[in-house]
Amino acid sequence: MTENAKQFSDLLEFLVEPLLDTKDFTVEVEEKDNGDGVKISLDVPDDLRGRVIGKGGRIAKSLRSILESSSFSTGRVYLDIVD
Description:
This protein has a single domain (3-82), classed as GMP Synthetase, Chain A, domain 3. It has three helices and three strands, in the order H-E-E-H-H-E. The chain has helices at 3-20, 49-53, 58-69, and strands at residues 26-31, 37-43, 76-82. A three-stranded mixed beta sheet has the order 1-2-3. The longest helix is centred in the first third of the chain and has 18 residues, at 3-20.
């Protein structure tokens, strides 16, 4: 994992932990083969998934916006909330 991917993972953990009030989630980072971006998978327990997605997907959209704005010089960042 490159330094940029680690920073994105740490940022997502920092943002999600207060929403869930627990550390019962996992963040997996997968770098694209072509070096064009980073895919981050967030796995949250079923009963807490609504807190991360938010009403109408607002929180998920905000998390994606924050990650994308922090990656302006390193390529794209894709956030996947695992079902």
